[in-house]
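Translate sequence into structure tokens.
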Amino acid sequence: MSLETHMCDYEFLITLMVWYDILFHGNLVSKSMQKVDMDLPTAVMYLENCKQFLIRYRESGYTECVLKAREICEELEIETQFKKLRPRQKKRLFLYEHEDETRLDPEHRYKTTVFDPLLNTAISFITEQFTQLQTHSDKWSFLYNMQKVSDSRAILLKQCNTLSDILKAGDDLDIDGEQLCQFALQKARRDQFL
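Result follows.
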């Protein structure tokens, strides 16, 4: 089969629509995260939004992709049917009563062998990345918005002490949580007067 034959295939066009939607959204997140003024809490928010998009897309995106692919197929005069695969014949043992496998219709087979695994893999990847960034953000993100956190001294002191504990090696402290909190409060007061 030629490349043109494969590209003029209904299943190929659906897959193309799926990849376009996923990569388009992923590209928006990637470009946003590469901005010079990007901060950690905003990056976490972008990744969470991307993850939620993929989860929603897994639930409702298939129907949208099929409709888009049908429109393209009509324009290009391509047949809008899934390929029917010839079922493989298995040798049956003596007194074998029934078939173990249910025969799936071609569209359901496509959805379960292409669409769902593709989105499950994307969601798994983004979840792993999001979890790592979320863990990092939980420890460090208050440093990016001390102005907001400094309104509540108790919360700021708790976060500074938590960071101090994280950076502690044995009895040696890299930073003192109380001093960091005092510094942040002084800086916030200075910034208010400027």
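Note: The helical segments are 3-7, 10-33, 40-76, 106-140, 146-149, 153-166, 177-193.
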